[in-house]
Amino acid sequence: MTGLGIPQNTIEVLQRHDFHIQKRYGQNFLVDAHVLQKIVDASLVTKEDCVLEIGPGLGAMTQYLAERAGSVVAVEIDRNLMPILQETLSGYDNVALVNADILKVDLDRLAEEKNGGRPFRVVANLPYYITTPIIMGLLEGHAPVKSITVMVQKEVAQRMQMGPGGKEYGALSLAVQYYAKPKLVADVPPNCFIPRPGVGSAVIHLDCYQEPPVAVEDEKRLFAVIRAAFNQRRKTLANALGNAPGLSVTREQTAEALVRMGLSPTVRGEALSLEQFAALCRELP
Ligand code: SAM
Asked: What is the pLDDT of residues 234-254, one digit of tens each?
């Protein structure tokens, strides 16, 4: 490996290619070999796996992944990074580069083309401006993915793994926990990146379920109820759902359903677990 994961080598590559870092693409390059190793270890990638890397940047993590995985598909939006990636990854014949916006890629087709239709392991130091759309797109879109190991903003990592009651608990926590088992891997300080982000970061591993942990008839309705509950999180759940356009339940119907579940009719959404939201969906007319 050329060892991009140290500051001097990254600066050398940036200067030699006269590359201008694009803030609008959330470019914060990892320059800490210890953190790179930790991410790749947490991803559980083996030679049996095809990795989907989102945003390879200069290729620092791609090099580690190429050593560990059977193959890597790296999707990068910035066309100007392509010649750099071709150079930094020239020593690997198991890496395919795709110049595209990950939010527009047909992942079923990509898995078909690159991995015989089998699911990817996703590994990424994500661009923070689109963390939630990327994660929710993978999960809600039922993308062919068996695990997701990603660097995200520390606060987002906390929200993903939070249980009922905490102030970080919300729609993202419930959505992530419906599809996957989250595990916080490590906190990562800003000095591990060039340039340094203005926020703390953390690595989180999501082990995707084959079957969701709770049974609901209509997944869309479950998430409509959850969104309505947290859109007005200061209100009681009965008021929040009763006011929500499109849900077609009244405040009274919600309060009655809560009482049948053994809960207070004035409970707030932030007190309910995923199991209780699923039960509420079954109780509501
Ligand atoms: N993986 C590299 C590293 O760890 O040093 C770079 C990580 S940097 C935080 C995020 C990367 O995602 C950048 O290379 C950026 O250009 C790329 N990116 C941003 N938006 C993207 C999108 N919509 N689709 C694919 N890549 C994107």
From this structure: 899 999 999 898 899 999 999
